[in-house]
Amino acid sequence: MTERTNSARELARRLGLNHTSILKAERAGRISRDADGSWDVVRVRQDMLATATPGRSPLASPVETTAIERLALARLALSVEAQRVALDQDKGRLMDVVTADHRIDEFAAGMRDAVLNWPARVSGLIAAEIGRDPHLVQTILQEQMNALLLEVADRLAPPAR
Length: 161
Known about the structure:
Radius of gyration: 37 Å
Distance between the termini: 73 Å
Structural class: mainly alpha
């Protein structure tokens, strides 16, 4: 014979819960009354066990065995990860791909300009040191720098598919 009761308070007492948790579970659709308005204690216990949140319900088993427990744990893990990513983004440790590409382009352009301007800056010093024409030294340095930059660009270019 099944255990039945008409009182939510009596149901809570039999399950070892408080009256409020029964009302909340009913409102959330985790448990329901029978058509005659009574509670089937065994069925309600099974429904409560199947939907119990680990760590929050005295009915929940300590080991994650039910699907709802695994889903709750996965949801918690995703929430923690989302919070970690948001914190990293707030602290400036993350940026979107477009911003990163823009910053890399700015840095590379600055480096390219510095390398291209280097022959004009040092050619006079080198020419005076070796006793050659400054214009000739600058021209040779610029040709070598251009060749070096082309070689580096070829190495950095993505492979053709």
